[in-house]
Design brief:
This protein is about 45% helix and about 20% strand. It is an alpha/beta fold. The protein has a five-stranded antiparallel β-sheet with strand order 2-1-5-4-3, sandwiched between helices. Strands 7-6-8-9-10 form a five-stranded parallel β-sheet, sandwiched between helices.
Length: about 450
């Protein structure tokens, strides 16, 4: 007798076969985020065999900058949403981070996940944004939002499905639309690696109202510059004043006029676009085209807070071009400027991880931040930097150290068990640098805690 195609054993075999052959990253995780089952696509895309992932926590592979948003999604959003889509950066087996888009479906105590690698898409989008910025600084665009090469993203936050649908239908022709039906979901989207360009935020929502969401956004350095427009039925001047005081840029009252909504979004996005260009100009060292001292101070403060919260290592590097004054005296300041540009490029190109950060400290000095990097890892990076700069082969005939340009490097790594150590990192990195110079230059010196 022919076996029934629909019996349970047959169904199970077919599902297993589909699971194994699917090109998407399929997996099942428990409610705590631990891998329970994965398909072979993970090995093809990220290098991990199923055995290397099963019983591991998803959060352990997430980029440090995406940890907060991912933890928030796993702990706060999934328990209250049957379906959830978001993206983050996930570490591959070779150490590179890949952009992954996750589609979570909760079913009882397990979460069924279909994910895909969107790294190339993100790189293309970043390239288009950079091109748009370059064009925007030369040619002022008259219609930001509809004519820009990259469609800007509008996040609509409202617990009313009718309101979100009305706004989505009205705006989807000109913008990419993101939807959140609660304040917590809105914060997760805003904190992701693909945040919105503007937020339309309802005030009256259960659990977390719009005012509270706006205050959270203003407290986070990554989200404080996202424009927020309150969408509300409240019309009292006192309510409007309170919203503007806590960081909103405008109000739209219900029932809303679609032409007015479109006009306000367009105007505020145009303003944000040019503010972003201005911010880029104020954050970048104009000679070397890497981050400047101002931007370093901002990032240093952010990374210290993250390291404290996560109890993780943070390494700080200070680099100085050896006998650069002799170089300028011998070759002239124009050649000196070109030397600084080449060294800056070598530093930036040597730092491979997305979270690593390089800046020009001033003169011939540079500095780097290496989040989640212990002392041994930092020492390896320093040596790579020293060699890569020597390999530039920039002749320095007046140097008593070497025939080509070299650098001295000082490095300090935080001790996560000592909370107060983070504030002294810069001082100790600078002291380590001077020890490297005093002991002969063209070397790495690790600060001894």
């Amino acid at each position: 007798m022919m076996k029934n195609f629909y019996d349970s054993n047959s169904q199970s075999e077919i599902l297993e076969r589909i699971f194994d052959l699917n090109l998407d990253l399929l997996c099942i995780i428990d409610i705590n985020g631990q891998f329970f089952k994965v398909n072979i696509a993970w090995e093809n895309v990220l290098g991990y065999s199923p055995d290397e992932l099963i019983k591991k926590d998803l959060i352990d592979f997430v980029h440090p900058h995406d940890l907060d948003a991912t933890s928030f999604a796993l702990k706060e959003l999934i328990p209250h949403n049957d379906n959830l889509t978001f993206s983050n950066r996930f570490r591959s087996k070779n150490g590179d981070y890949r952009y992954i888009e996750w589609n979570f479906h909760r079913y009882g105590d397990f979460i069924y996940v279909a994910a895909k690698d969107i790294t190339q898409k993100k790189r293309n989008e970043t390239a288009r944004k950079e091109a748009r910025t370059l064009l925007g600084s030369k040619n002022q665009q008259s219609d930001i939002g509809s004519d820009s090469p990259v469609r800007q993203k509008v996040l609509i936050v409202d617990d009313s499905l009718l309101n979100t649908k009305l706004l989505e239908q009205a705006l989807m022709e000109n913008f990419d639309i993101l939807i959140a039906n609660s304040g917590k979901e809105a914060l997760a989207i805003a904190n992701s690696n693909d945040p919105p360009d503007i937020i339309l935020l309802d005030i009256m929502m259960p659990e977390m109202d719009g005012y509270e969401v706006c205050e959270y956004l203003q407290l986070d350095p990554h989200t404080k510059d996202i424009p927020v427009i309150f969408v509300t039925a409240l019309s009292e001047a006192e309510s409007e004043e309170h919203g503007l005081k806590i960081g909103a840029i405008d109000y739209i009252t219900k029932p809303f006029s679609i032409p007015i909504v479109k006009a306000k979004i367009k105007n505020h996005l145009a303003l944000k676009y040019y503010q972003d260009i201005l911010k880029i100009n104020t954050d970048v060292d104009q000679l070397t085209n890497i981050a400047n001292r101002r931007r370093f101070d901002e990032m240093f403060s952010i990374e210290i807070k993250k390291a404290k919260r996560m109890g993780s290592f943070l390494s700080v590097l200070m680099l100085d071009i050896d006998h650069f004054k002799f170089y300028n005296d011998t070759y002239g300041h124009l050649e000196g400027d070109e030397c600084l540009r080449k060294v800056a490029f070598a530093i930036k190109n040597t730092l491979k991880r997305p979270g690593d950060f390089a800046a020009r400290w001033g003169g011939e000095e540079f500095t780097c931040l290496l989040p989640d990097t212990d002392r041994l890892g930092a020492a390896k990076v320093c040596e790579k930097l020293r060699i890569s700069i020597m390999d530039l082969g920039i002749a320095h005939k007046s140097s008593p150290v070497y025939k080509d340009i070299t650098v001295s490097i000082g490095v300090i790594t935080s001790d996560p068990s000592e909370d107060g150590c983070y504030e002294s990192l810069l001082k100790h990195a600078d002291a380590a640098l001077y020890q490297a110079k005093d002991s002969g230059r063209n070397r790495v010196n690790i600060w001894n805690q």
